[in-house]
Batch of 2 targets.
Target 1
Amino acid sequence: MASVPSLASTVQQRLADALSAALPEAGSADPLLRRSDRADFQANGILALAKKLKGNPRELAAKVVEAIGADGELKEIEVSGPGFLNITVTDAAIVRTLAARAADERLGVPYAENAGTTVIDYAQPNVAKEMHVGHLRSAVIGDAMVQILEFAGEKVVRRHHIGDWGTQFGMLIQYLIEHPHELDHQGGEVSGEEAMSSLNRLYKASRTLFDSDEDFKARSRDRVVALQSGDEETLALWQKFVDESKIYFYSVFNKLDLEIRDEDVVGESGYNDMLEETCRILEETGVAVRSEGALCVFFDDVKGPDGNPTPLIVKKSNGGYGYAATDLSAIRDRVQDLGASSLLYVVDARQSLHFKMVFETARRAGWLNDKVHAVQLAFGTVLGKDGKPFKTREGETVRLVDLLDEAIERATAVVREKDVQKQLTEEEIADRGTQVGIGAIKYADLSTSAARDYKFDLDQMVSLNGDTSVYLQYAYARIRSIFGKAGDRRPAAHPELELAPAERALGLHIDQFGEVLGEVASSYEPHKLAAYLYQLASLYTTFYAECPVVKPAPPLEVAENRLFLCDITARTLHQGMALLGIRTPERL
Ligand code: ARG
């Protein structure tokens, strides 16, 4: 395995060398290289440099050009405008670089230089509650980040911080004690749907009783105390709720084609043993103070509407611990026991204030510092077509499973319709329909910047035109089908050939894959990978229209070189989509 420097980085390095050769007084100035429409690249770093050295930018640029000179790699370098450099690389350099990528199973993508350990907190639904579209976002974005970080060489520890603790369990358990057979199933394996529907039923029934019956309310409160003090019978029943919910969670994750491992599910309850100590440390170090009986952390810049400071409450006045104490304990665990250098939280933007306060508290306590940092990858709200938070017509939260099923149904129809020559079997149609439908949902989520709200629009998601996963999947399948038609012609790189503009554009884009991945891994922005892949498919479409591969048959070398471009495009698409958690069927 060998990492292959991109042409951009090679050119950047040559420019930097030429800059310091031509102008020793410039030191290590950045040539600021960008892709450009005029030429392949444009460097505009000389402008700032000239200002600094009080020189004429065009003259400085000319000096740099002289110091570089064209060769087998650089076809042309010219001064333009006020002192930009326009740089064109040779066709041979493009093909050679791509050939080096093709020879590597990682497509020449380097590992990150400063890889560490990231603990990522994602896919965290709540026990005894239906999953909603927010949980979908966390799971899909989180899974993509896991794949992307691991591919970059980062050690990744996954944590599913499920909501499995809290006062509501007093009510649920008490109800179950009084109605012991409510969670029983009649033999056989329990489906996720069945598990959730019995949990729902139980939840509603106990809620009704809790709200109407004061005695039940009191018994439920006592039950919370029993749960917190570790009473065995109570804990066993609590475990029943957790297990039943997991059946449901796994069925949804499975449908979403996400691998969630049981050992990575460490819910809120997993930190119970640490809560007291966490509070003690915070109080002893003066990070938290007593205020009206509660243990609180205050911040200068966090105030309520009345102008009074809003504290982070780590221990309530009644002695109970909440969400904050758990998250602070989880930080200690992740940093001190799991050895994290980065903590990444894929959580709804509406929890941003919570995390801001939790992170700041952890910094004051010294658990987070210059070496260990925490980031919330905050995502926006999923909206309905009407632009309002996604709800059913009756105003209820939409069940995730229903959405997934509908997406699969629509995608299956698209696959069936596209298969005009009736080449696919029913089983293949169902299979592809699932991959296309789930891919559509994931891609829609991953292709807009996570922070933004997005509209959940199935019609758009499974559309064959535009920025959708189906478009990318078809591009991939089409490339694969070309190999079936190519007869005995094989992909082979031919650096001696002159390239058509569409071939150059495609080649230069493929060459950027590693850089894009590096950026996506460090900025936690998977949408940039989606955008890259969409552009790759678009450039391929242009190439396909302008540069015949099979018919009309071009000269042998040209055909081989084009097949080579097809092959590396397909591999890049496949790898990129896999990192987003999306399947690319070979045939569609
Ligand atoms: N269970 C929470 C919810 O459904 C998300 C948990 C986020 N992670 C955390 N460490 N607080 O909103």
Note: The chain has a mean pLDDT of 94.
Target 2
Amino acid sequence: MLTRSPNSSLRLGILLSGRGSNFLAIADSIRAGRLPGVEIAVVISNVAEAPALKAAQGLGLPAAVCVSKGRPRAEHDVDMIACLQSHHVDLVCLAGYMRLLSPNFIAAFRNRILNIHPSLLPAFPGLEAQEQAFAYGVKIAGCTVHFVDEELDHGPIVVQRAIAILDSDTPESLNRRILAEEHLAYTEAIRLVSSREYEFRGRRYLKRDS
Ligand code: GAR
């Protein structure tokens, strides 16, 4: 659980592998004052060529590369954990980080890792969730921000946003429309977590009784 003191800011560690539009949406929410008391402590990519790295540097944010290709997961994650800890990260936000985390990583940040997934979980876990939803023919799609546990796309849900799939949709248009919801959902989820007003009741993440 988050244990920061009420007056200290919540330091995010953003993990990504590519484009980084969710990271940029979070950065924009912070800049616009939609996430008071939240700051980005570091952006880490496991892919050296990730376009998001340049964007992070352009915003004056600490950015690091920790290449994962060809390295055993557990060994790579030791370096990721060290980098996050050296930046005093409170909450890890996976934003298009396309690599599974080792059990050690999850234990090091237990209940302090969020992930965004482009489907209404538990439907369509795994890769290309939007394409899975389109091909299946569901009428409602969306995205989920959830805590990360040892199972893929499985931990307690913080926020979901749903959209209707239109007859006129293509996989590309659906992808675009879900992504727009993701950008709203991630800010909403970080706001809930940073409020410290929510607690786990089993799998459910609920507002604490006042
Ligand atoms: C997003 O659609 C995110 O939900 C997805 O990767 C994309 C990253 O985009 N993540 C997963 O599918 C994880 N299972 P971005 O780099 O522009 O934020």
Note: Residues 16, 18-22, 95-96, 116-118, 129, 179, 182 surround glycinamide ribonucleotide (CB under 6 Å).
